[in-house]
Amino acid sequence: MYTFLILSIPLVLLIFCTSNSSYGWKSFVPPLAIGGVTGIVVSFVKKFLIFSRYTWTASAASACMHLFLTQALLPFVLCYAVFLIFSRDSLAYKLESSGALMGSFFAVYIPFVVISGSDKAAFFLNFGKPLLYAGLCVWFAEWCALGASNLKNKKIVPAVCFFVIAALNLVVPAFAESHWYFSDSSAWTVFAVIYVALSICFYVFLNRGQPDYAIEEQL
User: What pTM value is reported for the model?
Assistant: First the structure.
């Protein structure tokens, strides 16, 4: 029953690590390990030390904010805090490896959240939710890579735009899940499929032997 839930994020993560043209897959082992271990620790703490459950209200906005904080923003902050303690690599690597770092975290944490929840049989949670978080990891890494490359080439405006787009992607899974909960529409599952499919296609396109993502300025 939970096969897709458990395997979908690792499969997308495999594509991410093996398709990168700037770094070999072995270079992603440290963030993979840190993200996975952090995911295990957070899941353990949430299971055995934190007993409060979120009560869904009549407001999709409130639910979206809760999901954004607890399942996107805080995990990103926590994982990067741990990652920065051990990593002495370049800024570009730290940003681009976010896909591996967060992908391995969500590969553990999202199945835990779904299986331990009260709606664990819901199709969207077993199919759409892992795809949303897999897509988030890929999109975030892509936009950060573009931002880092343009920042390196002193193209500040494009760099800032790419970083803003990367940050906005953090809201996407929470927005989709909160609106699915109140509408119970299969359209959000379709959205999740499109979201992750586009992220993979764009990522593979960017990495077709093109390690430099900088946008050329038009004179």
Answer: 0.89
